[in-house]
Structures are given as structure tokens and as C-alpha cells.
Write a structure and sequence with these properties.
Blueprint: H1 21-38, H2 46-58, H3 62-78, H4 82-96, H5 104-121, H6 125-147, H7 154-179, E1 187-192, E2 196-197, H8 202-208, E3 211-217, E4 220-226, E5 231-235, E6 253-257, H9 260-263, E7 273-277, E8 285-288, E9 298-304, E10 310-317, E11 320-328, E12 338-344
Parallel strand pairs: 2-6
Antiparallel strand pairs: 1-3, 3-4, 4-5, 5-12, 6-7, 7-12, 8-9, 8-12, 9-10, 10-11
Helix pairs in contact: 1-2, 1-3, 2-3, 3-4, 4-5, 5-6, 6-7
Length: 345
């Protein structure tokens, strides 16, 4: 079973505005831990973070405890530890299932979604389908709850957006599970876009309405995308040849518009979209965004400074090829950054 998690990660979808001071501090530490994990640094204090999270539970802060559990699940998943990730998400789901304060239904939907992704990665398709279906229903209930709240609160606006955008992706994942040929042979399936389409906005909306063809070849897949007027085949960057394998199980991907000015360079040779794997690889073409500036796509490469820390070196910013600018690891938004592994032409 090939599982392709949607972006962003579940913990990014949570309602966290009403966290206590202690829970908020632990959330910030978990966010730092995710950044370290995604940049390839070893992180040995997952158990210590969990013990501190249980301290929240002991103080009666069950909501804060469940929020941190979903962060811990994302950290564990980043390291490929599916067992702990599943346990953390299961505990969070059970906690959020109890009726509670504002945002409880929303966070319960996110926990169910997280469990669906994990069960799919584990190849437990019936469990994945059950949790995906339940998450759609819970997102619907959360959307109704948010509709009664103030529209001027940006946190509530963000939650409404999550309730509108995630269920269609979940339905795509359900279609994917239902349409995979389990005979073990080579097959092609058609399903809604499973990788994240980013940045949001008019230019990406057309991508989001496309479908992808995934050809299963053992444990790897090939991919092409199709719109109303044209199809685009995945090629290697600069090589003009088909990429095989294009997608790996359990990895997260983005499809990003290539700016016209950059598309005409020798690097991209008229390609329309870039396929991004949300990993950091040195000295390869990549995209990066700075924290709180996710609408500004920077093109360049990852490198290490003299101290061994990851940094992003820009070569293209907005509408022009730019002088190199160095962005430190802590300033990167790793949920919308990654290495270019192919282009769609």
C-alpha cells in the first residue's frame, strides 16, 4: 500500500488559541523538535516531551495534553516511528472525542484524520477508511460550530479554511485506497490530487482541480498530472527523462507553479510545475519559505554554514534572479520547503 500524506501535517491544523501558558510553551518546544527532525538532526527527547505532556494531563489540562500528543505523533512519524505515532494519535483522538470547549470537534476531526493517514501508511486500509470517513463527518460538525463564531477572529477564519479544504483531500485519499489494484502487478489508477498544491491562490487552484495518475511499480510509483486542456508528464530536473521512482511511501510532496521567468532558464526548460519532496538535501535545487511568509516562494538550494547548520541560499526571489541571500534553518518554514525531485512538462 502506498501512502502519501497530505500537507500540511495534522498538528498544523489544530485549534490552539485557548492553550494554557504551560501547554503553549510545550507546543513551541515540539514545533522546534519537528524542525530539527525534518532537517535530519537526531532528536532523543521524544519520551521526555511525552512525560511533560502527561504533566498537563495530571493538572487537568486534557485539551493541552491531546494537542501535544498530536505534535508528538508528527515528530515520531518524521523519524519513521509509526508505532509511537499511532499510539499518540489514538490517545489524542480519545481525549478529543469527549464533548468539551470551543474547538473540541475541530481537533477531534484532525485527530481522526491523523489516524487515517497513519493506518494508510501501515497498510491497514479498512481502519484508514473508517477514520477518514469519521473525520469528514467531524469536520462538518466543526464547520457548523465555527459558523456561529465571530468572523473577525483570524484563528477562527483559519479553522474554517481547514474545515473547507481538508475534507476534499480526505475524499481523494478514500478514492485512492478504494481504487488501488491489490493484485501486486503493475497498474495505473486515477484519483484526485493527493500531494499538496501550494501556494494557495488563483495560480494553484488550477493544479488543485487536476488529477494525478499513479502507476504502481513494486514499492515505487510514477506520476503525471492532468487538467482540462493538457496533461503534464513528470521528468527529471534538467535531464528530460522519466523519473523512476517518482514518489516514495510515507514521504510528503508539494506541487508548485514554476514562475514563467524561471521556467525559461536552462534549469527548468519550459516546465510548468515542480514536484517538491519535503526533505532537505544539500546542493540540490529546492524551494524555501520563511516563517510567517508562506506566500513568498524562494528558489535556490540548501547548504550548510561553517558550523554545520542548514541554511537556504536564494537565487530567485519574486520576479527576478537575485543576489544570494542566506536564510537560517530556524527561520525556514519546513512545511512549505523542500527539494525539487522532478518537473512537469
Amino acid at each position: 500500500m502506498i501512502g502519501i500524506p497530505c500537507s500540511p501535517r495534522p498538528s498544523k491544523l489544530l485549534w490552539t488559541k485557548d492553550l494554557t501558558v504551560l501547554a503553549k510553551a510545550l507546543q513551541d518546544e515540539c514545533e522546534d523538535a519537528v524542525i530539527r527532525a525534518r532537517s535530519g538532526q537526531q532528536h532523543r527527547d521524544l519520551d521526555a516531551l511525552h512525560e511533560r505532556a502527561k504533566g498537563l494531563q495530571a493538572q487537568g489540562d486534557n485539551t493541552g495534553y491531546a494537542v501535544i500528543l498530536l505534535y508528538l505523533a508528527d515528530i515520531a512519524l518524521t523519524y519513521g516511528r509509526l508505532g509511537p505515532a499511532l499510539r499518540f494519535s489514538t490517545r489524542a483522538e480519545k481525549t478529543f472525542a469527549n464533548p468539551g470547549a470551543l474547538g473540541q470537534s475541530h481537533n477531534h476531526a484532525v485527530a481522526l484524520y491523523s489516524l487515517g493517514l497513519l493506518y494508510q501508511l501501515l497498510g491497514l486500509e479498512e481502519d484508514a477508511l473508517k477514520h477518514y470517513s469519521n473525520s469528514i463527518q467531524e469536520f462538518k460538525a466543526a464547520e457548523q460550530q465555527w459558523s456561529t463564531q465571530s468572523s473577525s477572529d483570524p484563528s477562527i477564519t483559519q479553522c474554517r479554511r481547514v474545515c473547507a479544504e481538508i475534507p476534499p483531500r480526505v475524499r481523494g485519499l478514500i478514492d485512492y485506497v478504494n481504487n488501488v489494484d491489490r493484485s501486486g502487478g503493475t497498474t495505473a489508477i486515477r484519483c484526485p490530487m493527493l500531494v499538496g498544491c501550494w501556494p494557495s491562490g488563483p495560480s494553484a487552484a488550477s493544479v488543485d482541480q487536476m488529477t494525478i495518475d499513479i502507476k504502481i511499480l513494486g514499492i515505487s510509483v510514477e506520476m503525471s498530472i492532468h487538467g482540462a486542456a493538457q496533461s503534464y508528464q513528470l521528468e527529471s530536473l534538467g535531464g528530460g527523462t522519466s523519473v523512476e521512482p517518482a514518489i516514495e511511501p510515507g514521504k510528503e510532496y508539494l506541487v508548485v507553479d514554476i514562475p514563467p521567468e524561471l521556467a525559461q532558464t536552462t534549469w527548468f526548460q519550459g516546465a510548468k510545475y515542480a514536484l517538491i519532496r519535503k526533505e532537505i538535501h544539500e546542493d540540490q535545487w529546492a524551494i524555501g519559505t520563511e516563517q510567517h511568509k508562506s506566500d513568498q516562494v524562494l528558489w535556490g538550494r540548501f547548504a550548510r554554514d561553517p558550523n554545520g547548520k542548514i541554511q537556504f541560499v536564494t537565487v530567485y526571489d519574486k520576479q527576478f534572479l537575485s543576489w544570494p541571500r542566506f536564510i537560517g534553518e530556524a527561520d525556514l518554514d519546513l512545511d512549505s520547503s523542500g527539494t525539487i525531485i522532478g518537473i512537469f512538462r
